[in-house]
Amino acid sequence: MMSDAGPKPSVPYQHLYVDDEGVSRFSKCALTDYELKGVGPADPQWNDKMERGEATVVFTVQPVGWVGDWHENPAPQWIVVLSGRWWIEAMDGTRIEQGPGEFSFGGDQGCVERDGKKGHKSGTIGDEPCRLMTVQLHRDPVGRCDFT
């Protein structure tokens, strides 16, 4: 039997969004809407259940040295790093790096091109491919930190 589930979790993620001027930016957000609940006879676990909707799961392998020049995410999507490392740069110049177990939300659809930049750039880091899992949501983009 489980002893103590501990305090309600707050799990950080980076949210790439489009501001009112059409520029992509990152915001540090956290998933916080957790509920302690069991699944069948299993001990209770913390769950933050997202809104139900259609989605497409895509697994991606970016080769060593891969660079994706300026582009928008193909759909509002959760991006989870499975192995390797990568970087993402927003139009405002903010650059983040992520490794295994880290995740972000790509909601930069609808950017306005500025100085040859639209959306974000990204690429692999190091001497191994970066393996990602994306969950593309079939919905309109969400605003900054709208999953909290």
UniProtKB/TrEMBL annotation:
InterPro entries, sorted: RmlC_Cupin_sf
Organism domain of life: Bacteria
Identification of the protein by name: Cupin domain-containing protein
Species per Swiss-Prot/TrEMBL record: Sphingomonas rubra
